[in-house]
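Hey team,

Filing this mostly as a record. A colleague (T.K.) asked me to run one chain through the structure pipeline before their review meeting, and I want the input and output archived in the tracker in case anyone asks later how it was produced. No errors, nothing strange. Just documentation.

Input sequence:
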Amino acid sequence: MTRIDVWLWSVRVYKSRSLATAAVKGGHIRLNGDPVKPPHAVKPGDTVTVHTPGWDRVLQVINPITKRVGAKLAVEAYEDLSAPRPAYLSAPLARRDRGAGRPTKKDRREIDRLRGRDSRY
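Output structure:
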């Protein structure tokens, strides 16, 4: 049996084990629809839901590996059942030119509008 935080780190869902543990403790991970704690074991056939802002990844455990492996082997340890990633999450961020200086108040308001935030509140 493998701990859920170790498995999430092993299959490269999170960059570090501490990030995976923090996500499980924060309630962003569900196992078969139920919230879990980091030492909970995963087994083949379990469904792990990883909540990220704007998107939920649904992974079905095929191989409960305990060691971090290469990306090609990590993909074989689970089946991705989630919907495709929304396009707005993959869109590039607007960047200011290097050396353009500090944005003015008008620039900051335009940036907030582009990001979908209302600067009036």
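Quick notes for T.K.: Strands lie at 2-3, 29-31, 34-35, 41-42, 47-52, 55-61, 78-80. The CA atoms of residues 9 and 54 lie 21 Å apart.
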